[in-house]
């Protein structure tokens, strides 16, 4: 554990992580559930630092079936997903609490939205700097280096930390 930065709190059988346990990853994501032979096995939940969670049945470290719930209570449904799509562009908080008055746009499900550092993008799990190509979480901790595909997707689809005027950029 000392080499991976993870922490294990639970039972052991023959020196292997097995039984009811809590496994804390270096990203502060926590697994609470059953382990077998050092792997997630049986009922278990991943709790993410963002407040979302993934409840699942695991078999030898792999998900058999699971359900993802966002921090605001919205549950992901792979078959009937109509959240913020062409069918219904409202955010979950708008669905639950109604639309804002005309002229007061809601830019994200979080209201008010996060302030994005200048020159960066909000890519959903953190801020992305296109110059360094690094994604850092919302607490400014390193998450990952973006590959070319992720870089292009972020530039094309994510909110920016600056405004643009046609023909002129206000970016620093």
UniProtKB/TrEMBL annotation:
It is found in: Cell projection, Cilium, Flagellum. GO terms for cellular component: motile cilium. Keywords: Cell projection, Cilium, Flagellum, Repeat. It comes from the Eukaryota. InterPro entries: MORN, Morn5. The keyword Repeat applies. It holds the Pfam family MORN. This is MORN repeat-containing protein 5.
